[in-house]
Amino acid sequence: QVQLVESGGGLVQPGGSLRLSCAASVSIFSMYAMDWYRQAPGKQRELVATSTRDGGSTDYADSVKGRFRISRDNLKNTVNLQMNGLKPEDTAVYYCHSKTFGGIDYWGQGTQVTVSS
């Protein structure tokens, strides 16, 4: 069983920054992908950023390109999401997600990000 624990959420003003972290209970190098999703009230969960096994390939939702950056530390088994230039529409619960090579999905409990003045 893989456990993912997010941290770093909170309240921030528009234009501000936050850094989310996800700590995994197993080696993330064994994961096919590590991602960040978010879900705003009344909306479907959406993929925000994804990182492949070696971190060499990343992809982002169009809405966050140029503002968010995903990074992973395979030695510390952590995946981070640096969020800059935050907007009110970024307000959501952010979830860490992993997928094994066998196609099994794991989710963290989520961390709330609120962007408001």
Search tags:
seven-stranded mixed sheet
Question: What's the gyration radius in Å?
Answer: 13 Å
Strand content: over 45%
The residue fraction in helices comes out at under 10%
Overall number of strands: 11
Structural features, described:
- The structure is a single chain.
- This protein is mainly β.
- It has no helices and eleven strands.
- It has strands at 4-7, 10-12, 18-24, 31-39, 46-52, 58-60, 68-73, 78-83, 92-100, 105-107, 111-115.
- The strands form two sheets. Strands 2, 4, 5, 6, 9, 10 and 11 form a seven-stranded mixed beta sheet that branches. It has a four-stranded antiparallel beta sheet with strand order 1-3-8-7, with no helix packed on it.
- Strand 7 (68-73) and strand 8 form a beta hairpin.
- The model has no long low-confidence stretch (mean pLDDT 93).
